[in-house]
Each structure stands twice: as structure tokens, then as C-alpha cells.
Automatic annotation (TrEMBL):
This is EamA domain-containing protein. It comes from the Bacteria. The chain crosses the membrane at residues 6-25, 32-50, 56-79, 91-111, 117-136, 148-166, 178-196, 216-236, 242-267, 279-298. InterPro entries: EmrE-like. It comes from Candidatus Shapirobacteria bacterium CG11_big_fil_rev_8_21_14_0_20_40_12. Keywords: Membrane, Transmembrane, Transmembrane helix. Signal peptide: none annotated.
């Protein structure tokens, strides 16, 4: 049960992070690649804690850890690209709807995870709620937001791969050792990107767009993000990676409420439509997600 509470706490923090990301990424001088580069570079500083719990892993598990870190970098890149192009709430709902399905299949096929009846019902409610939240109404037809669906889908795919591999690593080692090995993969990806002349030029040119105010906001944002991801990874270590991923739908509830408030003060950056045709599917989605969380608590996760 602890891992469910930890996941909910992590997603609350990540909801705040996504909004700060949207504020920073609203600057025309900042693009997805440099932002993902610096964000993952900061994450890599967690390597300083490795001496506290270092041990070698079997070669295959090391590969899982490195690829898990690389796919996490890719996931953040596509997520930031999607946030630039669309509503934060819909981006997160698309990612939260697709990623758990992929992780669920991964868990059954590769991790041989067994799900009890109440967990399957909760998973169904959480995924259905996320899908409902990702729809927007255009005339008489419901459709996905076409401008950023591809980026959101790619973010979901790479996050699913990263979280699935993360769970596989945690099954073979301690939390801290596994977490740091995965961050090695992230650091290798950061180094590779910086060594590419064209990408390095984009990163360095974009860094000039960071004012002192945005830089301070960035460090605050990534500090909160680091805490959230440590908590989220520990939840994955303790519980079902599929359900932890599906609980991302709860993040939408926090984002939707924040968006409603902030859209009055910064509508250009945090716009959230209040038209009934847009709000009703979101309310239905939140209700479904709430049922899913309730089933987890009733069944004792």
C-alpha cells in the first residue's frame, strides 16, 4: 500500500514540475532538445551517491539499466516537445493512457507479473480515464489533439520502455545501486548528444535564452523533479510498475485544477478551455481515475 501513496505523492510533485516546464518552454529561445539535455545532465549528478551502495550487476542487467537511462532521456525530449506544442493536461493524459498499456504487456511477457482481480479493475479504470482525458471535441466528433499526439505517443513509448527496464533492474539489485546504474545510461546519452557538433551548437545557442530568472526557475523545477522521480522509482521498486505507471492519470487531476486557476492569470501560457464540450470528457476521465485509485485502496493494492 505504501507504494501507491508514494506514487500519488510523486505525481503531485510532477504536476507542479510540468507547469513550471511549460512556463520555461514558453520562451521562444528555448527548445525541447537543450531543455532535455540540461534536465538530464542535472539528473546525472546523482552519480555522486554511488559509493554508498555500489555493486556490479550481471551483464544483461547492466544493459537493461543503460538502455533504461537512454530511453528516459528520449522520453523527456519528446515530452518537452509535446508540452511546447499543446496543453500540458492533454499531453500528460495521452502519455498516461498509452504508457500503462505498453508497460502492462511488458510486465506480463517479460516480468511474469501476476495481477489480482481488483488490480486489473483499477488498471482498467485508470487507463480508460486517461484515454477519456486525452480526447477533445471538434464539432460532433471526438479526436485526439492532432498537433502534438505523435510527440506524446513517442514520449509514452520511451517512458514505458524506461520504467519497464527500471523494474527489471530493481528486481536484481538494491534501489540505490539500480537507480544509479540507470542514471549512467542517461549520462552516456547526454555525453553522446553533446559530442554531436550540430546538436551541441543548438544546445549552446539555446542556453543564451536562459535569463537569470529562468535559470533560477529551472533549478527549482529540476530540484522538485529529482525528488519526484526518486519517490516514483522507489514506488516502482516496491510495487507493480504497470499500476504505478497507470497512476499517472492522477497527475492530470492536479494539472487540470492548476490549469483552471493559472489560465485566469497567464492564459497565453497555461490556457485550459472551459467550454462544456472540453470539460465534460475531462470530468468523466477524472471520475474514472478516481474509481481506479479507490479500487487500489479497497483491495489493499
Amino acid at each position: 500500500m505504501l507504494w501507491v501513496i508514494l506514487a500519488l505523492a510523486a505525481y503531485f510533485l510532477l504536476a507542479i514540475v510540468e507547469f513550471i516546464d511549460k512556463r520555461i518552454l514558453s520562451s521562444p529561445a528555448i527548445s525541447a532538445l537543450p531543455y532535455a539535455f540540461y534536465a538530464n545532465l542535472l539528473v546525472s549528478f546523482s552519480l555522486i551517491f554511488w559509493p554508498l551502495d555500489f555493486s556490479w550487476l550481471p551483464p544483461l542487467i547492466i544493459v537493461f539499466a543503460l538502455v533504461g537511462g537512454i530511453t528516459f532521456f528520449a522520453g523527456t525530449y519528446f515530452l518537452y516537445g509535446a508540452i511546447i506544442k499543446g496543453e500540458v493536461s492533454r499531453v500528460i493524459s495521452i502519455v498516461g493512457g498509452i504508457s500503462p498499456i505498453l508497460i502492462f504487456l511488458f510486465s506480463i511477457v517479460f516480468l511474469e507479473e501476476k495481477f489480482r482481480a481488483h488490480s486489473l479493475i483499477a488498471l482498467l479504470f485508470l487507463i480508460t480515464g486517461s484515454v477519456s482525458l486525452s480526447f477533445t471535441k471538434n464539432g460532433k466528433k471526438f479526436m485526439f489533439g492532432k498537433h502534438f499526439f505523435l510527440l506524446s505517443f513517442l514520449a509514452a513509448f520511451f517512458f514505458a520502455a524506461s520504467y519497464g527496464l527500471t523494474k527489471a533492474v530493481f528486481l536484481k539489485t538494491s534501489f540505490l545501486n539500480g537507480f544509479i546504474w540507470i542514471r549512467v545510461g542517461t549520462l552516456l546519452c547526454v555525453i553522446f548528444v553533446f559530442l554531436m557538433p550540430r546538436l551541441r551548437k543548438v544546445i549552446l545557442e539555446s542556453s543564451r535564452g536562459f535569463s537569470s530568472r529562468l535559470t533560477a526557475l529551472f533549478f527549482i523545477d529540476k530540484g522538485i523533479s529529482a525528488i519526484a522521480h526518486i519517490i516514483l522509482n522507489y514506488a516502482i521498486k516496491l510495487g507493480s510498475v504497470a499500476i504505478v505507471s497507470a497512476l499517472q492519470a492522477v497527475e492530470y487531476a492536479f494539472i487540470f485544477l492548476l490549469a483552471l486557476g493559472l489560465s485566469f492569470f497567464c492564459p497565453r501560457i497555461f490556457y485550459e478551455s472551459l467550454a462544456p464540450k472540453h470539460v465534460i470528457p475531462k470530468i468523466i476521465g477524472i471520475a474514472l481515475v478516481s474509481f481506479g485509485v479507490a479500487f487500489l485502496f479497497i483491495g489493499g493494492a
